[in-house]
Amino acid sequence: MSLAPRVVLVHRTTEYEELVARHGTHGQAAFFLSSRGRDIEEVAERHRRAREALAEVVASVPLTWRQARVERRDLDRFLFAPEDVVVVVGQDGLVANVAKYLTGQPVVGIDTDPGRNPGVLVRHRPRDAGALLASARGGRADELTMVEAVADDTQRLVALNEIYLGTASHQTARYRLGLDEYGGAVEPQASSGVLVGTGTGASGWLRSVWQERGGELPLPGPAEERLLWFVREAWPSPATGTSLVAGSLTASAHLSLTVESDRLIAFGDGMESDAVELVWGQTVRVGVAGVRLRLVS
């Protein structure tokens, strides 16, 4: 007997909930904000909209389906199953947060705050959840390119937007940067880290670096098997160079980084709590991931 589909509802703690948890009560949180010229009602209203959206999505789940809920901070401990349909209720960034833990399950993005969120990944409204769930497993979905980092000790990290390699404090990182292209060029560098991103990431952190560099490299599309990479604030010295600071990676190409600091990390999509740790002498290779995010369109 085959199991009924399971819908996994992904959400996150709201700003209002975080404020009340920190200050103890609604009144104390309101006093804290008012003493700084802020009104808690703005935050409370966003909280109400988020919870109403989640309740509306829950009500639209077919009665024969199984359900599970997972909060953002618990994603690294949650086990997704192949038959799951994942519904992200929140912001665009929450879709990126969950993407690294999936292996082809369809994802439905529900926007809880239209107009405030860009809506790049949370494309739908709560009222549409029922129809989307009915067609999610066999319906139309965009296959979004992801980026992957694999260390020489088999540690692996996948991200939808970008992967950052550097120090946890974003201070100077020392390493040797290598490219499959350009005859396998290798350069010792000191910088504040390396950013490798996808076409989806081109609407976020990657785009800000791209604009800062003058926008000379063409940005990839979300489904295009091409990545952009940038070295942040490379420092020239007698022992370190700055000739390899930006470029693109095709589907078959890789960027390699060999650690020459006591400890570097690699993390994806802002999830520093789920980072790969790298020590002196280790090498990590970054390129287009073999898995894609199936985002229901």
UniProtKB/TrEMBL annotation:
Record lineage: Bacteria, Bacillati, Actinomycetota, Actinomycetes, Kitasatosporales
**InterPro entries, per the entry:** ATP-NAD_kinase_N, ATP-NAD_kinase_PpnK-typ_C, NAD/diacylglycerol_kinase_sf
Q: Which spans of this chain does the record mark as coiled coil?
A: none
Superkingdom to which the source organism belongs: Bacteria
Which species expresses this protein natively? Streptomyces mirabilis
Q: What is this protein called?
A: ATP-NAD kinase
Q: What Gene3D superfamilies does the entry give?
A: Probable inorganic polyphosphate/atp-NAD kinase, domain 1, Probable inorganic polyphosphate/atp-NAD kinase, domain 2
